[in-house]
Amino acid sequence: MDTRIFGTTEQDIMQAAEILKSGGLVAFPTETVYGLGANALDPEAVGKVYAAKGRPSDNPMIAHISSKDDMGLLTDGITADVEKLMEVFWPGPLTMVVPAKPVVPKVTTGGLDTVAVRMPSDPVAAAIISASGVPIAAPSANLSGRPSPTTGRHVIDDLDGRIDAIVIGSDCQVGIESTVIDMTSDQPMILRPGIITAQQLSQALGKEVTFDPALLQKPDTSAGSGLLEAGSDFRPKSPGMKYKHYAPKAEMIIFQGDRQNVAMAIAEEKMKRAQWEQKVEVIMYDEEHPEEAAKEFFAKLRACDKSGVDVILAAALKEDGIGFAVMNRMFKSAGYNIVNV
Ligand code: AMP
Ligand code: MG
User: Is residue 24 lining ligand 1, measured as CB closer than 6 Å?
Assistant: First the structure.
């Protein structure tokens, strides 16, 4: 398939929207990561997304809208809490899981009777969704299992020849996927951590927000199949969280503990690996600015792949707030290969 490459002129956006309207696949930038879009209400179009990404079909899609009014197209479940979060965080990197209306195809929800909805703030994303006139299912625009794409180049590397078009816009400002929160009961629960933190959500709602217990576990991934071990008790509510994600080609080790000890342990390991003539990359982000880590992390993994790095030695961030969201990705990338120092 010939993949058309668009910029972000008005004409480009209209053409991209036309492709979406007629059931095609278009990748485009959002503030979180690049998304691979399809008409969320067209089962055939959504089916093509799973095929292009090589994505397991029980992993549901997020439906993206460009106006708060469109929430009512997808759900009857706009509670006072949902409304509050829409008011405070939309448009932005927050996805809400709500009961789905029958109009939402099962292929979009991975067979669930709930649907995940987000209203992105990126102006190019908003313009494309708005011009298409339908909600757009848009999982990250990468091959399944690879790091999420945060630049147009990343999307070309993964999906050129597999989809109808790619809209190249700015690099993503957030750099990790949206926070996903389950709003189907009175007790809001975070299913995937992101840049919008539990503390912010809880403050906006005036009530406690919990985490899916699976997020607090570090599962055994020794089966090595990409799918976590069937026998394990790791059962996240968000189907996508159970798959091995974001894996770089290199071996990756995370060093966790006091920063000084971590720095020393990494230096030692680096020396040892260099003696083995391995190409080593060290990732050590400023603990005080986890948002910078979020923005750069996936791009870093892809750069390591491209330059043939053998081993990545990474310093853990504090697991709270945005740091918790970054570490969620980092642990998965390393296949939970953690050294405590
Ligand atoms: P992605 O599209 O790659 O950003 O991934 C979407 C994430 O949202 C995955 O982790 C999905 O499992 C999760 N998700 C989407 N829809 C639902 C839903 N109805 N219930 C729970 N999690 C969902
Ligand atoms: Mg993804």
Answer: no
Tell me what pLDDT residue 239 has: 62
Residue 90 pLDDT more than 50? yes
Q: Distance between CA atoms of 310 and 281, rounded to whole angstroms?
A: 8
* CA pair distance 8, 122, nearest whole angstrom: 12
CA 104 to ligand 2 centroid distance, Å: 20
**Ligand 2 mean position to 140 CA, how many Å?**
4
Out of 31, 32, 53, 61, mutate this one to test ligand 1's pocket (max ligand atoms within 8 Å of CB): namely 61
For the chain, domains (ranges, CATH) are 4-216 (3.90.870.10), 251-340 (3.40.50.11030)
* pLDDT greater than 70 at residue 29: yes
Question: Is residue 227 over pLDDT 50?
Answer: no
170 by DSSP, 3-state: which? coil
| DSSP assigned state of 215 | G
Residue 109 CB–ligand 1 contact under 6 Å: yes
CA quadruple 104, 25, 119, 189: dihedral sign: positive
pLDDT, tens only, 155-191: 999 999 999 999 999 999 999 999 999 999 999 999 9
Give 50 Cα–ligand 1 centroid separation in angstroms.
Answer: 13
**pTM for the complete prediction?**
0.93
